[in-house]
Amino acid sequence: PQAITLTPDPPRRGRPLTVSVVGELSTDVVDGAWADVTVKLGLLKLVEQRLDLCKESEGIGRQCPYEQGYQNVTHTVDLPREVPPGRYTIAVHAANADDAPLACLAIQFRM
To answer: Per-residue pLDDT averaged across 79-104, rounded?
Structure first.
């Protein structure tokens, strides 16, 4: 990605968090593309799962295939008040249906 923006930065418990990712795709993203997502609080792994990119895209009003070229993806989530304070790391490794790499990104923030 060329840019990743968190709003607000830093995120706040009990408030919406908007994540925007801007970048250039060198190939089309097709049905069967996936992303491995890991969320850690300090050294504690909270989430580790594989997501179907096309199914997840439907939840934000987009559909596969994504065409090669410039992309701007924005999504807002509500952060529960119960989220513990600390340093968070989110790592995403994405690949197309043929396992060809699409993107790698890491986001770190304190809450």
So the answer is: 94
Rounded distance between C-alpha atoms, residue 95 and residue 12, angstroms: 31
| pLDDT in the model for residue 53 | 92
Q: The whole model's pTM is what?
A: 0.84
Q: Residue 94: which of 47, 62, 52 has the closest Cα? A: 52
Residue with the two structure tokens 């790592």: 91
> pLDDT tens digits, residue range 3-28?
999 999 999 999 999 999 999 998 99
What contacts 10, CB < 8 A, 6 or more positions away? 109, 110, 111
What are the DSSP calls for 19-57, one per residue?
EEEEEEESS-B-TT-EEEEEEEETTEEEEEEEEEHHHHH
At residue 1, does pLDDT exceed 80? no
Burial of 79 (0-12, 13-18, 19+ CB in 10 A): middle
Rounded CA-CA distance 48/59 in Å is 20
